[in-house]
Amino acid sequence: MYSPEEELITILKNASVDITASLPCEKIKTLLEMVEERFFHVPLTREEEGVGICAGAALGGRRPAMFVQSSGIGNMVNALLSLTQFYELPLAVFVSHRGIYKEKIAAQFPMGQRLPAILNGAGIPFSVISSPADLIVVAQRLPEVYADSRVHAFLLNPAIWEGSIAARVRQLDQRPVTCMIPEQRREVCPPSLTRYEIIEAIAPYLSGKAVVGNLGWPSKELYAIKHQDSNFYMLGSMGMASPIGLGMSISSGTDVVVIDGDGSLLMNPGVLATAAHLAPDNLAILAIDNSSYGSTGSQETLTGSCVDLDLVARGFGIGITAKAATRKQLVEAMAPDTKGLKFIHALALPGNKDVPNIPVNHITIRDQVLGFLKK
Predict the structure, then answer these.
(1) Prediction pTM value
(2) How confident is the model at residue 179, as a pLDDT?
């Protein structure tokens, strides 16, 4: 009587994996339920989001592992390269390898059959786990992922689970569906401050906190206004600011502030649902909305025509939100008078401040934040 799922769980425990994140796959449904029962677990809305959350968790000293199916790798490659590998952070990715064994869904064939070549081309190391006997390879290589701060993908053939005695952990209960109707749009002042002036206004509230600066001009402006060792300056990976901050907040006891942007949030809005689900009381997301892609030529985003990020955050379930357009409103929103996950929608004028590039390399940025969070 043998359960490969139990063997893999034991391997994860022996390697001190302490945070997991996943999207579902029918081929590993029992394994995923066991992972959710045995580890701190983050249910994801998109694979790319999980890379950011795991990066933030690694900065907080945790040992993350992700569980996805092969099609999801296509949603992760850029973040794996420009975030996890670039900053040399550890991440084990367990991939339910579809399209290669008794596959009934034709759409799984193209990605599944090309997956090894895609990983090779991206320079992402991987191991092919074809049978239960191959799980020894996971046991040998998983500790190296965390010791050497590397990314490694383990491709799990569906044949591994044949004959397993593992039973599903639970059956889903019928749950009532609730509908939240947001209040009418609130009247606010028109924007009067640029992003630079907004960061200036909130700078006193950033002292002693871990701060994630969105890539491009936001990070450069943050460095010019309020450089501190606890600032994580993003140099790539658009859309990952809030996921990184969420990963930091659930992995440390320190207060975390994310300086995100409208264009970035529109790329991964599902992270707001994940944040609402986890509800860390030490995370504040400041969404500076100038209705433009400020780092790529100020092209207009959809917040200029049809999207209200405050309503989006509340619709995803974040209970504490504020809309701010003046210094006074920003100060009131940032003041630590309420405990809980906060979302602040800061309306801004478009434009970038002419500030120098950040004179700190990515590994130094990582090491400074790691050192701060360890304290």
Answers:
(1) 0.94
(2) 53
